[in-house]
C-alpha cells in the first residue's frame, strides 16, 4: 500500500471513528502536515513532532503562544522575560531567535530586530484567537529543507480551522484573578463566525480577540543587614516581575472560494495591535526613559509603546492528478511605535554646553524636545510555491520560495550631527527545495531532502538532510536521521553603522557587516511505542553541532580613537569620539565559532482506565559553547532538566478534571552587572515544581465552563539571598543580591472561562 493510500485510509477511519463514542478517540493516531508539507501519521513524519489539539488548548489559560506550548517536551518558555513581561520560546536549547513561527505555513518572524532593548517577547503575541485554531504542530529540531532560515531550533505551525458548509461561531470570555494584589488581573474575549456566503462556493470567516492585563507591582521582602538595618529592594521590569497596563487586539477575515472541484482560492487579512503604558509614575519610567527635560540626555521612549502587525495573503490550492499544488503570496508589516531618536553626538555636546551655562528648562526643551520619531519597521513579501507528486513508491515534495524584505530603523541614518531619513537594510533571499519520501518497503521509508538558499549578501548555501522511518512491528517504530540548518544574520545585525542604543539612549551599538551565516549539523534517533489500548511512549536522543553562532560580546573602537586599527574600527562620525573620548568601545555581535547541544526527550501517556490517563514528558539538555572567548559557557539559559506531568480524568462525558505539574532544574545563572567579584555567584538558579488544578464542564452542547487554579501551592518566585560586604569595618554594608529564580512568576491565581458555541 502506498503512503498516499495509507494516509487516505487513516483519514477515512478518523472521520468514521470520531462520529462514534468518545472513549475510542484516544486510540487514533495524530495526522500532521508540518514535517513534509503533506498529511502524514505522526510516527511516519520525518521529524520529531508534538501536536497540541484544540481541546487541549481549551483547558488552560491562553493569552500568548507561550501558554500553548509551555508543557511540551524540548520546549522552554522560562529562559527570561522582556521589559513587558513577555517570554520567548526556545526549542532544544537554541534560544527564541531560532524558533520559526508559522500560521498556516506562512512565516511570522521578523527579518531584523525591531524590538531592541529587551522587548523581543512581543513577537509571540501576534497570533490568531484560540477559537480559530484547529491545532498547533511543533517540530523539535531543524526543518530547514522546507522552511529555510530561522528554523535551526524548530518550527511551530499554528493551523487554523477551515470554513465549513454551515454557519457556526463561538464567543468566549476568560478572566484570571490574582490572589496576591501585587499582581494584575487579566481578561480575554474572543469570537469567531464562519459559514457559507454561497453554498459549496464561497465561505466567510471572521475572528477577533481582546486581551487586557493590569499592571503588576510585586514586592521583595526587605533584607536586614548585619547592623540590624532594613534594606529595601525593588523588583525591576520584565524578569523582575513588574509589568504595566497592556492591551492586545487581534482582528481577521478570511474568504474561501471554491473555483472548481479541485481548486480553491483563499484570501486572508489580519491586524494585531499591542499597547503598553509608559506613563511615568513617582519618578519611575516603566519601560524606558520617556522624553522630558528632567531626564535628558537620556531619551528614546514616548508615553505609550505600541507594537502592530498587518498581514495579507492570497493562496491557491490545486489538485491536478499528477500533482497537488499549494501556492501563496504573503505580505507582512510589523511596526514598533512609541520609540524616539536619542540625542546625536553633536546634540549631546550642545546639551552639555547649555547645562554648564545654566540654561533654563525652557531653553533646553526648545533645543531638544520633542524628539523625532524613531521608525522601527519590517516589510516582508513572500512568494512560496510547493508541489507534491506520487511517483511509484516516491512521494515527492518540491518547490521554491522568494522573500523580498527590508528593515527600516531611524537609528540606521544617525550620524554625529543629524539623521538621514529613510535608511533601510534590504533582505532578499530565494530558495529551491525538494524532498523524496521513498517507501522502500511497507515498513521502511527513507526521506532525502535538499534546499538551496541564496541571500543578497551571502553566496548560495546547500542544506541536505536524510531521515528514515521504520515500522518494526505494529506497536514499535524507530526513526531518525541527520539534517543541516542555515540562518543568515538579521538585517539589523549587518548594517554598517549605528544599529541601536543602550544606557537609555546614550551609548550606540554598531553592526557587524562581516558576520557569517550560522550553520548546524543535527542528528537524532527516536523509538516510538503504541499499545492497542491507546498507551504510547517515545524516546528521542539528539545532538546538534553548531557553527558560527552569533552572540553579543564583541567590541570595537571608534576610528578616530588614537589606539584604533584601520579597517577594524567603527567609523561613526568624529563627534562621537569627541563626546565619549579615547578608549570607549562600541558593542557589536560576533560569530563564536562552535557550540554543541546534546539532549534526550521522553514523552508518554498511559490509560489507567478508559476515563483516566496520565501523560508525562522529560527533557535533558546540555548546551555549551566549545570555542572562542566564551568557551565552556552555556549556549542559552535553558534548564538542564525539565519535566511535565498531567493526571487527566474524564469523570463524565460532560465533566473533566486534571492536575498538572511543571518541574525545572539546573537553569544557568548569569552574573549581574556591578557584582562584587570577591563573592562567588551561584552557577544555577533554584529548582522548582509548581502544580495547576483544572476542570471543564459542558453545561450543554452550546455552553462550556472551564476553571483552573494556577500555582496551586503558591510557590514564591520573588525569594532571594543577600550577601553583605563592607569597606569601612562594618559601619555600613553594601548589599549584593542573589535571586533564587530567573523569572518572577505570579503567585496563586484563578482562571475562569466560559465559551458559547453556536
Automatic annotation (TrEMBL):
Alphabetized GO MF terms: siderophore uptake transmembrane transporter activity
Signal peptide (from-to): 1-22
The entry's keywords: Cell outer membrane, Ion transport, Membrane, Receptor, Signal, TonB box, Transmembrane, Transmembrane beta strand, Transport
Membrane-spanning ranges: none
Xref: Gene3D superfamilies: TonB-dependent receptor, beta-barrel domain, TonB-dependent receptor, plug domain
GO CC annotation: cell outer membrane
Domain spans labelled TonB-dependent receptor-like beta-barrel: 264-712
Domain TonB-dependent receptor plug: 42-155
Cell compartment(s), UniProt: Cell outer membrane
One GO BP annotation of this record: siderophore transmembrane transport
UniProt-listed Pfam families: Plug (PF07715), TonB_dep_Rec_b-barrel (PF00593)
Bilayer topology annotation: Multi-pass membrane protein
Region (Disordered): 273-292
Primary localisation category: membrane
Coiled coil: none
Family as reported in the entry's similarity comment: Belongs to the TonB-dependent receptor family.
PANTHER family to which the protein is assigned, alphabetical: COLICIN I RECEPTOR-RELATED, TONB-DEPENDENT OUTER MEMBRANE RECEPTOR
The protein's name in its UniProt record: TonB-dependent receptor
Gene source species: Marinobacter halophilus
Amino acid at each position: 500500500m502506498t503512503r498516499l493510500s495509507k494516509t487516505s485510509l487513516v483519514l477515512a477511519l478518523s472521520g468514521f471513528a470520531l462520529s462514534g463514542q468518545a472513549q475510542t478517540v484516544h486510540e487514533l493516531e495524530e495526522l500532521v502536515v508540518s514535517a513534509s508539507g503533506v498529511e502524514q501519521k505522526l510516527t511516519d513524519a520525518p521529524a520529531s513532532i508534538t501536536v497540541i489539539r484544540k481541546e487541549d488548548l481549551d483547558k488552560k489559560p491562553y493569552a500568548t503562544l507561550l501558554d500553548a506550548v509551555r508543557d511540551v517536551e524540548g520546549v522552554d518558555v522560562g529562559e527570561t522575560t522582556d521589559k513587558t513581561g513577555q517570554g520567548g520560546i526556545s526549542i532544544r536549547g537554541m534560544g527564541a531567535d531560532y524558533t520559526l513561527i508559522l500560521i498556516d505555513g506562512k512565516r511570522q518572524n521578523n527579518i531584523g530586530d525591531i524590538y531592541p532593548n529587551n522587548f523581543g517577547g512581543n513577537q509571540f503575541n501576534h497570533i490568531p484567537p484560540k477559537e480559530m485554531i484547529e491545532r498547533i504542530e511543533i517540530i523539535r529540531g531543524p526543518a530547514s529543507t522546507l522552511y529555510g532560515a530561522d528554523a535551526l531550533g524548530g518550527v511551530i505551525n499554528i493551523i487554523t480551522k477551515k470554513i465549513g458548509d454551515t454557519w457556526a461561531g463561538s464567543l468566549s470570555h476568560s478572566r484570571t484573578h490574582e490572589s496576591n494584589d501585587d499582581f494584575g488581573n487579566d481578561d480575554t474575549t474572543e469570537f469567531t463566525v464562519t459559514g457559507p456566503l454561497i453554498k459549496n462556493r464561497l465561505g466567510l470567516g471572521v475572528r477577533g480577540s481582546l486581551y487586557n492585563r493590569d499592571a503588576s507591582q510585586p514586592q521583595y521582602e526587605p533584607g536586614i543587614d548585619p547592623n540590624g538595618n532594613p534594606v529595601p529592594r525593588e523588583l525591576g521590569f520584565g524578569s523582575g516581575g513588574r509589568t504595566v497596563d497592556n492591551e492586545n487586539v487581534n482582528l481577521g477575515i478570511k474568504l474561501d472560494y471554491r473555483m472548481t472541484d479541485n481548486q480553491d482560492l483563499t484570501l486572508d487579512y489580519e491586524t494585531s495591535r499591542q499597547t503598553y503604558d509608559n506613563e511615568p509614575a513617582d519618578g519611575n519610567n516603566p519601560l524606558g526613559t520617556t522624553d522630558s527635560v528632567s531626564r535628558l540626555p537620556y531619551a528614546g521612549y514616548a508615553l505609550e509603546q505600541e507594537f502592530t502587525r498587518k498581514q495579507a495573503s492570497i493562496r491557491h490550492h490545486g489538485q491536478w492528478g499528477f500533482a497537488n499544488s499549494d501556492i501563496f503570496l504573503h505580505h507582512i508589516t510589523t511596526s514598533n511605535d512609541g520609540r524616539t531618536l536619542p540625542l546625536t553626538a553633536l546634540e549631546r555636546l550642545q546639551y552639555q554646553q547649555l547645562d554648564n551655562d545654566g540654561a533654563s528648562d525652557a531653553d533646553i526643551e526648545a533645543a531638544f524636545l520633542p524628539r523625532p520619531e524613531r521608525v522601527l519597521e519590517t516589510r516582508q513579501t513572500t512568494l512560496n510555491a510547493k508541489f507534491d507528486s506520487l511517483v511509484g513508491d516516491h512521494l515527492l515534495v518540491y518547490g521554491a520560495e522568494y522573500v523580498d524584505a527590508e528593515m527600516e530603523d531611524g537609528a540606521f541614518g544617525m550620524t554625529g550631527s543629524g539623521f538621514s531619513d529613510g535608511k533601510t537594510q534590504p533582505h532578499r533571499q530565494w530558495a529551491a527545495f525538494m524532498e523524496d519520501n521513498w517507501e522502500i518497503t511497507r515498513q521502511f521509508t527513507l526521506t532525502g531532502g535538499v534546499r538551496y538558499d541564496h541571500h543578497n549578501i551571502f553566496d548560495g548555501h546547500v542544506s541536505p538532510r536524510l531521515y528514515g522511518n521504520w515500522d518494526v512491528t505494529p506497536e514499535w517504530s524507530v526513526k531518525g536521521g541527520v539534517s543541516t540548518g542555515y540562518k543568515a544574520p538579521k538585517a539589523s545585525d549587518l548594517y554598517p553603522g549605528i544599529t541601536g542604543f543602550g544606557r537609555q539612549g546614550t551609548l550606540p551599538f554598531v553592526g557587524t557587516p562581516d558576520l557569517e551565516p550560522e550553520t548546524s549539523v543535527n542528528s537524532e534517533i527516536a523509538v516510538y511505542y503504541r499499545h492497542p489500548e491507546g498507551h504510547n511512549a517515545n524516546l528521542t536522543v539528539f545532538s546538534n553541532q553548531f557553527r558560527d553562532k552569533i552572540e553579543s560580546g564583541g567590541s570595537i573602537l571608534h576610528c578616530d580613537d588614537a589606539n584604533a586599527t584601520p579597517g577594524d574600527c567603527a567609523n561613526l562620525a568624529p563627534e562621537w569620539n569627541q563626546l565619549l573620548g579615547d578608549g570607549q568601545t562600541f558593542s557589536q555581535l560576533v560569530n563564536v565559532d562552535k557550540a554543541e547541544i546534546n539532549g534526550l526527550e521522553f514523552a508518554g501517556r498511559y490509560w489507567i482506565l478508559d476515563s483516566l490517563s496520565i501523560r508525562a514528558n522529560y527533557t535533558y539538555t546540555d548546551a555549551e559553547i566549545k570555542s572562542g572567548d566564551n568557551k565552556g559557557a552555556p549556549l542559552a539559559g535553558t534548564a538542564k532538566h525539565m519535566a511535565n506531568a498531567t493526571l487527566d480524568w474524564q469523570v463524565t462525558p460532560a465533566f473533566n478534571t486534571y492536575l498538572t505539574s511543571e518541574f525545572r532544574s539546573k537553569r544557568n545563572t548569569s552574573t549581574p552587572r556591578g557584582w562584587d567579584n570577591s563573592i562567588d555567584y551561584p552557577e544555577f538558579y533554584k529548582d522548582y515544581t509548581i502544580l495547576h488544578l483544572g476542570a471543564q464542564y459542558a453545561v450543554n452542547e452550546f455552553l462550556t465552563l472551564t476553571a483552573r487554579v494556577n500555582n496551586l501551592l503558591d510557590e514564591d518566585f520573588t525569594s532571594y539571598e543577600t550577601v553583605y560586604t563592607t569597606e569601612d569595618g562594618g559601619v555600613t554594608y553594601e548589599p549584593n543580591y542573589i535571586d533564587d529564580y530567573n523569572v518572577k512568576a505570579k503567585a496563586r491565581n484563578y482562571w475562569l472561562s466560559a465559551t458559547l458555541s453556536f
